[in-house]
Design brief:
Elements: E1 5-14, E2 19-29, H1 33-50
Antiparallel strand pairs: 1-2
Length: about 55
């Protein structure tokens, strides 16, 4: 079992104003391909839920 813990920080920018509209910090655990796929899928869902205006 892996004990690797990683962090990802990203911002979504408004290209017209060049200012961040959303700033997120996510963490994940694991160093396998599956762990990376799950982290990527979670990041996409998080962006959709919190960073894209509805």
């Amino acid at each position: 079992m892996s004990t690797l813990v990683g962090w990802v920080k990203f911002a979504v920018l408004d290209l017209n104003s060049n200012k961040p509209t959303c700033d997120r910090f996510l963490s994940y655990r694991g160093d396998t391909d599956e762990a990376w796929r799950r982290a990527a899928a979670f990041a996409v869902r998080d962006i959709q839920m919190h960073c894209i205006p509805r």
